[in-house]
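Here is one chain, start to finish.
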Amino acid sequence: MPIVLNEWIIHDLAGDGGPGPQRESASFLQSLRESAQILVVLRQSPWMAKAFRLMKVETPTVRILSQILHLAILIDPLKCRFLEPEEIQPLPEELAMEVPTDDVYLFQAALAGHAEIIVTSDLRLIGRVTSASRFGIRLMGKEEFLQLQC
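Its structure:
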């Protein structure tokens, strides 16, 4: 099942939220690696820019986690499907009216990559984008998703 993650995973792996969320996200990476889920990522996106910056962090824990993300997920075609910018389309009008500008690329990636779930740490986004289900996209909070995965 294809999924799209917003940038929470990068921030958590970097330790921005402290050791608890960092451990949860490390555990999630392990479960993602072992599951049938596929991560859908737009190649030239804020998500990828943050993932590349994460790989340059020298802190040992962050370095290990970024390598796991890169080596076990991102470069494995069975775990990650990259979309090129020319593969995405503008959002349908109904979605475009609800999706904040910073998150448009996530929904474009979900539609182009046939992702059924966008996992977000932004609970306001879940309440705001009420038409997502009409396009086959379920918005799921990070906490709920992690409880189901780990």
